[in-house]
Amino acid sequence: MTVNWIVTIALIDGVIGKVSTGPCGRRDVIGYDLKPMGQIIAYARGMRPALDYSASRRPRFSRPLFLGTVVRGLGYIASALVCSTFIHHVDHAWPSAIRVGLVTGIVTGLGVTFNPYIEYYADNLPERRLGALGGFALQSLQYWLFLFDVHLT
After folding, report:
1. Phi, psi (5° rounding) for residue 60?
2. Residue 53 backbone phi and psi in degrees, to 5
3. What does the alpha-carbon distance between residue 46 and residue 1 come to, in Å, rounded to a whole number?
4. In a structure prediction context, what are the per-residue pLDDT tens digits for the chain, which is 153 residues long?
5. Contacts for 9-16 with beta carbons within 8 Å, 24 or more apart?
6. Which residues touch 18 (CB under 8 Å, ≥6 apart)?
7. Residue 90 in contact with residue 96, Cβ under 8 Å?
8. Is the pTM of this model over 0.90?
9. Rounded to whole angstroms, how far apart are CA atoms 137 and 141?
């Protein structure tokens, strides 16, 4: 993938994030300006979503994925601090930024560790079990939406 495509996709991602917040005109959507910049910098330095990725029978966490997880967490801490300078309704900027960075880093680390195992398991399901699982998921969707009070209007 060329740099032009990476920049285009990152900018589209940022625009979609801004548009999805609605025409609120608030300054707190600056985070959607910082995210594409972080993606462009990460891609330019060799970090890709499929870096060191393969479906495997056990969870794994390689050094490049560890470094990418740490850098992503630190980037989200920096982004939260920048956003808190523009938005003054955050009482404690540092603890809030550290919380955002830690949650992002932990979820990213868990995702890159266990997603190859989940993908391996899904790729090797027998056809009948996969059909039953997909049918259950589709048939129970309406009940999950009601349980979590999700309105689709």
Report:
1. -145, 155
2. -115, 130
3. 11
4. 576 777 777 777 767 666 655 555 555 566 666 767 777 777 777 776 667 777 778 777 888 888 888 988 888 888 888 877 777 667 788 888 899 889 988 998 898 888 888 888 877 877 666 566 677 777 788 778 888 888 877
5. 10/35, 10/36, 10/37, 10/39, 10/40, 10/43, 11/36, 13/39
6. 29, 32, 33
7. yes
8. no
9. 6
Q: Measured between alpha carbons, how far is 126 from 130 in angstroms, rounded to an integer?
A: 6
The residue whose two tokens read 């589709």 is 138
CB–CB of 96/84 below 8 Å?
yes
Residue 134, both tokens: 């997909």
Q: How distant, in Å, are the alpha carbons of 38, 88, 106, 131, 139 from that of 46?
A: 13, 35, 21, 38, 41
Q: How far apart (Å, rounded) are the C-alpha atoms in residues 22 and 34? A: 18
